[in-house]
């Protein structure tokens, strides 16, 4: 067990990660955010096309609420995928924990 004097700095040591790696991850994130609208347009087009084919088979009227909910779910899915990928990258590059025993 270690003891500390009243004036000792108790903050954890700096992790000092690679700046080049941080720039690379931020570059990939910015690229993803730039490409995201084009990907969403393609996914929305695919969703509406499949929905139209399904609605043509049986007689019936298309429901605009289904299209709105589908677009909202697609945007939410792409945003969650970005957040999960950043979280996984962060866990991968985190240094392993040491035991001081």
Report on the structure:
The chain has 101 residues and is an all-alpha fold. The chain has one domain (19-93). 67% of the residues lie in helices and 0% in strands. It starts with 18 loop residues before the first helix and ends in an 8-residue tail after the last helix. The model has no long low-confidence stretch (mean pLDDT 80).
What is the topological layout?
Elements: H1 19-56, H2 64-93
Helix pairs in contact: 1-2
Label this structure with key terms.
67% helix; 101 residues; elongated; 2 helices; mainly alpha
First-to-last CA distance: 9 Å
What is the number of strand segments? 0
Stretches where pLDDT is under 50 for at least 5 consecutive residues are none
Average pLDDT, all residues: 80
- As for the number of domains, it is 1
The helicity comes to: 55-70%
Short account of what is shown:
The chain has helices spanning 19-56, 64-93. With 101 residues, the chain is mainly alpha-helical.
């Amino acid at each position: 067990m270690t003891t500390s004097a009243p004036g000792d700095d108790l903050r954890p040591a700096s992790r000092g990660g690679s700046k080049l790696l941080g720039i690379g991850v931020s570059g990939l994130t910015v690229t993803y955010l730039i490409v995201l609208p084009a990907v969403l347009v393609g996914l929305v087009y695919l969703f509406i096309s499949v929905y139209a084919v399904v609605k043509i088979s049986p007689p019936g009227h298309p429901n605009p609420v289904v299209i709105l909910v589908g677009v909202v779910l697609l945007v939410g899915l792409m945003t969650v995928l970005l957040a999960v990928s950043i979280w996984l990258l962060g866990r991968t590059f985190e240094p392993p924990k040491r035991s001081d025993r």
